[in-house]
Amino acid sequence: MDMQKVDAIIEKYNKDETALLAVLQDIQAEKNYLPREAMERVAEIMEVPFSRVSSLATFFSSFSLEPRGEHIVTICMGTACHVRGAPLVLKEVERELGIANGETTSDLKFTIETVNCVGACALGPLVIIDENYHGNISTSEVEEMLEQYQNPSKQEG
Amino acid sequence: MTAKFEQKPVIKVGLGTCGIAAGAKEIEKILRKKIEENSVEIDVTPTGCIGMCHREPMIEYRDKDGQVFFYGDLNPKKMEIIFDRHLLKGQPMTKLSMDLENKEEASGAFLEKQTRICLRNCGVINPESIDEYIEKGGYEGLKKALKKGEDWIVDEVEKSGLRGRGGAGFPTALKWKFTRREEAEKKYLICNADEGDPGAFMDRSVLESDPHNLLEGMVIAAYAIGSNDGYIYCRAEYPLAIKRLRIAIEQAVEHNFLGDNICGTDFSFQLKIKEGAGAFVCGEETALMASIEGKRGMPRPRPPYPAQSGLWGYPTNINNVETLSNIAWIMVNGGEKFAAVGTEKSKGTKVFALAGKIKRGGLAEVPMGITIKEIVEDVAGGSSSRYPIKAVQIGGPSGGCIPVELFDTIIDYDEINKTGAIMGSGGLVVMDASACMVDVARFFLSFTKDESCGKCTFCRIGTTRMLEILEKICDGKGTEKSLEELEFLAHKVQNTSLCGLGQTAPNPVLTTLKYFKEEYEAHIKQKKCPAGSCKALITFKIIKDNCTGCNSCKINCPTSAISGIAKKAGSFSIDQEKCIKCGICKDVCRFDAVITE
Ligand SMILES: Cc1cc2nc3c(=O)[nH]c(=O)nc-3n(C[C@H](O)[C@H](O)[C@H](O)COP(=O)(O)O)c2cc1C
Ligand code: FES
Fold this sequence. Notes:
The complex is a heterodimer of chains A (157) and B (597). With 157 residues, chain A is α+β, with helices and mostly antiparallel strands. Helix content of chain A is 44%, strand content 11%. In chain A, strand 3 (127-129) and strand 4 (132-134) form a beta hairpin. The longest helix of chain A is centred in the N-terminal third of the chain and has 12 residues, at 20-31. The model of chain A has no long low-confidence stretch (mean pLDDT 90). Chain B is α/β, with parallel strands linked by helices. Chain B has 25 helices and 18 strands. Chain B has a 5-stranded mixed sheet with strand order 2-1-3-4-5. In chain B, strands 11-10-14-12-13 form a 5-stranded mixed sheet. Chain B has a 4-stranded parallel sheet with strand order 8-7-6-9, sandwiched between helices. In chain B, helix 2 packs parallel to helix 3 (76-88) and helix 20 (480-496) crosses helix 22. The longest helix of chain B has 18 residues, at 457-474. The mean pLDDT of chain B is 94. At the A-B interface, helix 2, helix 4, helix 5 and helix 6 of A face helix 1, helix 2, strand 10, strand 14 and helix 18 of B. Bound molecules: flavin mononucleotide and FE2/S2 (inorganic) cluster (FES). The site of flavin mononucleotide has 23 residues of chain B, from strand 9 and helix 21.
């Protein structure tokens, strides 16, 4: 990744060590994951051991150390979604995309992730694709929901 | 031109996360388009969540005479019809609109048993407008508090009997006194908006719908304890909440309710937002502070308590969002008025996030002392499925399951503790007979196992072993000894963990063992899942008498496991060899013909 972007992000926080978490969040927002070189760069410029950077990147579940797909399919596995059938929805998404939770399709199109509650429990089971919330999803609707992203031409609002 | 007594009509669109998830943005788009096409004068403003998540997307329409109408369960088509008929031609569609005053009606019943203090502005005002907040009496509490002084503030909070809403129920005034009496060059005030309980969304709703109410409470608290610096630690899964908080902070600074020399006094308070990064344990106060300091969010032993040595070693006061959102109201109305609501030891109201198998899911603020039954039956409207309600899970991963036989238990910190569950932060997930309680225990344990930070051995490995046992039971491989082992480990994990995560992680297992032992035994002895939920122990079957031959299961089956002749009732059956138990057939069948055994 282009290191200038990393430098700019670090600069934004005045190299403040306590902003390490925010720096990593911003890099991930930019790149969709945390490339190793970027993490090394952060350690170097912010003058902290690489182990410190890596300890944060591996502790918090929102960070990914591997490239993620163009579309992130996030399935809510919170309590409310769970009792309304989220595990079945996850299985169905996995089957449709042919990958397991946490994996990315070989064409780098989709990544499946899970999250513990996004706070829209009354509409569970909930699937979030990129920034779009799909509420009350049932297993039989999974295929159609994913299709919108497979064929961008069909995608509408 | 409109006559003098007429006002410009306004439409408020419920644009909280739940509204958006239900499609409210689409509704807003249609409204704006239609207004432009017809060149009518109607304002469209966003509002937060009124709590009726089950009726989203929702709008509130105030016509030129000031009459108010609510429409819920909208979809694009319905919205267009309502627009043409009501907004254009002025014919209210009484059959579609919701009468919030009418207790006989669903939405009226939902609101009837509620007392709104913390949520008083939610879904009423535009959360991105400080003017609307001020119009509702906002920041009056702060002005009064600044005038009356620190002692008075703490006194009022003490009189109110307010206890921490973050889970443990610690008296708020007492906590403030601890930080207040410390002598230090710097003190911090932190608002805990991590809301980690997976099935709870009270704090999110307050943040999204009435952020100024929280800010006002924080400034008052900061003034009382003598802090000039504060943080709101908000989980990153709440992007909309963070956005609205940022807007609110900016506006509050502009209006001099935050920042330097607040309201012309010599008191200053700077507030920053810190985003979490997806770790449940960061809701624990010492882990939260470590995370703000830029470290791994791992708890440390207490004492020293945050009040003595908190963020960067300075005295720190941490309160939950809901706790702080009651403060402004208490300042304006007095502590006694707050204490008039509730029970002897639990004063005021509690916000619950109602979810699960109920008709009316959403957010409800109820007076303490109400029974669980009233919440489930009257507020939430009872079961949404054809199965009866079996239990509620209260308190999230630290809480437990309360069976229907104990639904007369009242909402009160101590009464709920007696059942083995905890009040927690307000997540209330209702389960019907189709929920397997062993699976529920397994679910929570897999959550705590994943979220354990790994510092304490029993929390790290004990929860893993417990999860393995529960998985074995769910797979029909449990033995007589499994339950003994489970209980043994549960007590060990409880007693040897440093923080609340481990100390309470076994609660969901222990309460289900206590109240639903027969379900565990059915899995172990008869190798059956009575709720029909554990995949390894069930098979999908088609009941010939109910089958109409509609063919939809066959079309939708992803593995072509279903055979049958279309339109021939009762001719359908499932090939168990091919069946992957995905549940689609049961999901699409409109005649209850697909069952699990
Ligand atoms: C594992 C764990 C998770 C917690 N998560 C939260 C949380 O998400 N929100 C919260 O307000 N308190 C949470 N708490 C409680 C906090 O440690 C703390 O008691 C609370 O923020 C104090 O605020 P209050 O006195 O206003 O309730 C958690 C505690 C533990 C042990
Ligand atoms: S449990 Fe899925 S949104 Fe809360």
